[in-house]
Amino acid sequence: SNCVINLSADKARVIREAYRVLNRGGRFAVSDVVLRGELPEPVLKSVGLWTGCISGALHEDEYRRLLLAAGFTDVSVEPTRIYSREDIQALFDSAGLSDNGLVDGADGKIMSAFVRASKAPSGA
What we know:
The protein has helices spanning 11-21, 41-44, 47-51, 60-70, 85-94, 100-106, and strands spanning 27-35, 58-59, 73-82, 110-118. α1 packs across α4. The chain is 39% helix and 24% strand. It is an alpha+beta fold. It is elongated, with a radius of gyration of 16 Å. It contains six helices and four strands, in the order αβααβαβααβ. The longest helix has 11 residues, at 11-21. The chain has a four-stranded mixed sheet with strand order 2-1-4-3, covered by helices on one side.
């Protein structure tokens, strides 16, 4: 999956459902945009950044918490790309958010990551 979890309005429910339908010993694996800090309020409210998989993204700690709460084990969040200031500026500009203070507030906080977890094998 790519950017499906963060487009959901009820991320905990999606993760619980993934756990429910996964066979014992199965693996959960998504590529998603994940946060490493709080984003400024105008960013979180931007529809353009929601559809761009930014404003709906989970913080890496919250992602881990939701996976563990659903019953998953071996949870990991592996960064594959930290968004550069230029990347953030381009995203914000395309969403109509040209305030440099917003870019400063998001710098270093947005990343692409592999999110993985496992459902314990039967008998474990």
